[in-house]
């Protein structure tokens, strides 16, 4: 009448109520890791981007791109107009008629 033999592969002294051992080590490893604010922000942004519909993203990108190009074209037109006005003023001062 002795104690029941330990199951195969069980570590000696690793009974069901034994603190420590492999089970405790695995519990430590499996703890949820703390996430930094930057990591959380990146995760939230990725979730947001994937949750948006593709058409909506394309529309936003097209709007932003067109907005930039339109601003550049406007700036170019204003530069040309300023140069033309400055040229006209110089020509009037010199007495040159068109």
Describe this structure in words.
With 98 residues, the protein is mostly helical. The protein is 66% helix and 0% strand. It has three helices and no strands. It is rod-shaped, with a radius of gyration of 37 Å. The protein starts with 20 loop residues before the first helix and ends with a helix.
Summarize the entry for a quick read.
The protein has 98 residues and is mainly alpha-helical. It is 66% helix and 0% strand.
| Estimated radius of gyration | 37 Å
* Morphology call: rod-shaped
Query: What structural class should be given to the helix and strand makeup?
Result: mainly alpha
**Major sheet size, sense and barrel closure:** none
Termini, distance in Å?
Answer: 123 Å
Which band does the percent of strand residues land in? under 5%
Report the count of strand segments.
0
What is the average per-residue confidence, as pLDDT, rounded to a whole number? 77
Number of distinct helices: 3
Query: Which spans of ≥5 residues are poorly predicted at pLDDT below 50?
Result: none
- The helix content is 55-70%
Q: What string, H for helix and E for strand, traces the elements in order? A: HHH
Write the layout of secondary structure elements.
Elements: H1 21-29, H2 37-51, H3 54-94
List its traits.
0% strand
């Amino acid at each position: 009448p002795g104690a029941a033999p330990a199951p195969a592969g069980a570590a000696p002294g690793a009974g069901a109520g034994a603190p420590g051992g492999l089970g405790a080590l695995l519990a430590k490893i499996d703890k949820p890791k703390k996430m930094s604010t930057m990591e959380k922000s990146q995760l939230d942004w990725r979730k947001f981007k994937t949750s948006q519909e593709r058409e909506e993203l394309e529309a936003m990108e097209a709007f932003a791109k067109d907005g930039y190009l339109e601003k550049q074209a406007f700036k170019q037109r204003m530069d040309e107009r300023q140069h033309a006005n400055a040229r006209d003023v110089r020509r009037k001062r010199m007495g040159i008629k068109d």
